[in-house]
Design brief:
Blueprint (H helix, E strand, L loop, with lengths): L1 E10 L2 E11 L4 E5 L6 H8 L7 E6 L2 E2 L8 E3 L11 H5 L1 H6 L4 H10 L15 H14 L4 E5 L7 H18 L2 E5 L3 H7 L2 E5 L6 E6 L14 H17 L7
Parallel strand pairs: 3-8, 3-9, 6-7, 7-8
Antiparallel strand pairs: 1-2, 1-4, 4-5, 9-10
Helix pairs in contact: 4-5
The protein binds adenosine-5'-diphosphate and magnesium ion.
Magnesium ion binds next to α1.
Length: 249
């Protein structure tokens, strides 16, 4: 279980996160939505150990993971591929840092997302959406108890995005790892998550939390239900309330 406990984070004089607490239980799929510039990516950098918190604690199964990289499967908002490594070498890099990379598994995953032909290509030969898929696979093959995905499908066209959502769900329904997922799409959050956390504008703290009532495995049709529409409206209102002067992005 991931436990975020009363964390604060500022960049110099700019408070970005204030007294934020929440938990992600084993096997739970949690989505985070909030205004842009509210501190969502900053939160993930803190969980990923890339950046340090000013106050509070971040625990994974009871262990403090602050300043510790490699504890979670982390897909940053920007794909961050190394330009001098091939695609398959980019996928296996996390494992390389911690032991022996499994090239066979990496290739199987590339095949599943339609990138088999690009194994030996370099990142600059791929579109933004393709690079995002590579970054996604890299987080998955790192085989960690929790995946933190920062707007993983935002650079994809609508059709590929729907395909990838369905694919992520089928994958998750099979192995039930915990997922913490940032998205700016209310519909995506409702379709995928068990629970949605709405953040306030900067400095981010929790505004509201809703439990998503749809059964698993999720059916495509729920998108057209009255409950879906009502929840979408409710979440939209929360976000609208947070669109204030502090949000310059
Ligand atoms: P979100 O992902 O919710 O859109 P971010 O977490 O990327 O928002 O950014 C939150 C705020 O923190 C923004 O105002 C951004 O400019 C600021 N910020 C993010 N990273 C840094 C940094 N390394 N140094 C200074 N300010 C930063
Ligand atoms: Mg962001």
């Amino acid at each position: 279980m991931l436990s975020i406990q009363n964390i604060d984070k500022s960049f110099d004089a700019l408070p970005v996160i204030r007294n934020l607490s929440f938990e992600v239980k084993d096997g739970e799929f949690v989505a985070i939505i909030g205004p842009s510039g509210s501190g969502k990516s900053t939160l993930f950098q803190l969980i990923g150990g890339v950046s340090t918190i000013d106050k509070g604690a971040i625990l994974l199964n009871g262990t403090d993971i602050q300043r510790t990289r490699g504890m979670i499967g982390y897909m940053p908002q920007q794909p961050c591929l190394l330009p001098w490594r091939t695609i398959v070498e980019n996928v296996t890099i996390v494992e390389e840092l911690h032991g022996k990379p499994n090239v066979k598994v990496a290739k199987e995953w590339l095949n599943k997302v339609g990138l088999a032909a690009f194994e030996h290509a370099y990142p600059n030969e791929l579109s933004g959406g393709m690079q995002q898929r590579v970054s996604f696979i890299r987080a998955i093959v790192s085989n960690k108890p929790i995946l933190c995905l920062d707007e993983p499908f935002s650079a994809l066209d609508e059709f590929t995005r729907l395909e990838m959502q369905a694919w992520l769900l089928s994958l998750w329904e099979k192995d039930r790892k915990s997922i913490l997922f940032v998205t700016h799409s209310i519909e995506e959050a409702l379709y995928l998550a068990d629970r949605i956390i709405v953040l306030t504008k900067r400095p981010a703290t929790i505004k509201k939390e809703i439990i998503v009532p749809f059964a698993r495995p999720r059916q495509e049709e729920i998108r057209h239900s009255a409950t879906f529409t009502a929840l979408k409206q409710q979440l939209f209102t929360y976000l609208k309330e947070e669109k204030g002067e502090a949000n310059v992005d």
